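Field log, afternoon session.

UNIT: design team B
ACTIVITY: writing a sequence onto a fixed backbone
BACKBONE:
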């Protein structure tokens, strides 16, 4: 049976089925082990056999791959001709970008996942909206995952207009916040809801700029502010969530209930969506392990450590178990929103050079193989 397909057919995106998830993970790891010689070499170097995945605790033993590894190596399972989309991480100055490929079947299950999550969180709408994207203007030359995701978001409802804070002008991208400021002032006078999406940093810079200009408006009823992508190179300018929400309320008239944050990565293509209490509940299609930053030993819930993300979603690239450079905590406390799964609190990032992982050995194996 196709356990991966069955997992992604679960209608309730927060309905846990550990047995099915384990079966799907075993199926996924076995596929990549048999189809990807580089991934097989990684697992063999740790004497790990995919068929050893029999219970939920066995997921801790899957050799994880850090996001840093994908910035230097392209791992593809199966035939290159089946690839439909290539996506890159957003990257920061001076660093390489991850290249991840997705086949039709992976894209199909991810599409179903997004639809179910958006329905659950009431993001889908048949009402016309004005979209304001604090990110890259869509062009087919841009393979950044955040650009593709932002463009796809503009189809969550009929679009009356689409405006971008980072515009594509004369073959290059340029930040144009003054144009977005003028558009928001104009849209606030109308009745069509406005949906913003994009980097928190650029969103905050625009809110701060409008506040300094003494511009305080109230967006039409039904407007939403959605955030995703992190602060990237603007970590020094990062403000607390409370201060950010207060500024959004003052400048655009948006309550905290009208602000939704997303979390994800090109190396982990699962849509993590905040609940109304602003918690990232673990969806049915993923699991998370928190590991000690020094020993990489799994930690119990409630303790702070590195975030190790797991999903059997991808058939084209071995993204089964990914180590991020994010620090977080898994909470078991009951959430007032009603979702029963644990939720992930993301505390921040560590320097990528500080993360010592299993992929260092794998890197050396791959290098020696190519000599």
């Amino acid at each position: 049976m196709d356990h991966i397909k069955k997992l992604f057919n679960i209608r309730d995106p927060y309905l846990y089925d550990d047995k099915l998830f384990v079966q799907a993970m075993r199926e996924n790891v076995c596929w990549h082990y048999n189809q990807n010689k580089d991934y097989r070499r990684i697992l063999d170097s740790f004497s790990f056999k995919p068929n050893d995945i029999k219970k939920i605790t066995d997921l801790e033993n899957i050799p994880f791959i850090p996001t840093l590894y994908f910035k230097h190596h392209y791992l593809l399972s199966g035939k290159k001709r089946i690839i439909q989309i290539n996506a890159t991480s957003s990257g920061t100055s001076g660093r390489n970008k991850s290249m991840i490929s997705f086949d039709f079947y992976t894209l199909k299950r991810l599409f179903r996942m997004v639809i179910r999550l958006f329905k659950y969180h009431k993001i889908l709408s048949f009402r016309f909206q004005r979209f304001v994207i604090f990110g890259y203007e869509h062009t087919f030359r841009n393979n950044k995952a955040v650009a593709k995701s932002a463009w796809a978001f503009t189809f969550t409802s009929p679009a009356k207009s689409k405006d971008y804070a980072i515009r594509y002008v004369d073959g290059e991208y340029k930040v144009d916040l003054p144009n977005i400021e003028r558009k928001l002032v104009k849209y606030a006078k109308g009745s069509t809801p406005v949906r913003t999406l994009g980097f928190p940093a650029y969103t905050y810079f625009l809110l701060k700029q409008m506040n300094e200009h003494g511009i305080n408006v109230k967006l039409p009823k039904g407007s939403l502010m959605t955030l995703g992508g992190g602060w990237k190179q603007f970590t020094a300018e990062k403000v607390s969530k409370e201060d950010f929400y207060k500024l959004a309320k003052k400048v655009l008239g948006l309550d905290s209930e009208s602000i939704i944050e997303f979390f994800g990565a090109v190396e982990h293509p699962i849509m993590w969506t905040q609940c109304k209490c602003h918690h990232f509940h673990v969806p049915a299609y993923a699991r998370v392990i928190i590991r000690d930053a020094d020993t990489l030993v799994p930690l119990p819930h409630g303790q702070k450590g590195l975030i190790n993300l797991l999903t059997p979603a991808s058939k084209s690239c071995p993204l089964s178990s990914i180590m991020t450079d994010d620090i977080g905590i898994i909470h078991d406390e009951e959430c007032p929103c009603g979702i029963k799964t644990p939720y992930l609190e993301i505390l921040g990032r560590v320097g990528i050079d500080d993360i010592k992982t299993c992929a260092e050995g794998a890197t050396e194996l791959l290098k020696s193989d190519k000599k």
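LOG NOTE: The two ends are 40 Å apart (CA to CA).
NEXT ACTIVITY: expression trials, pending approval
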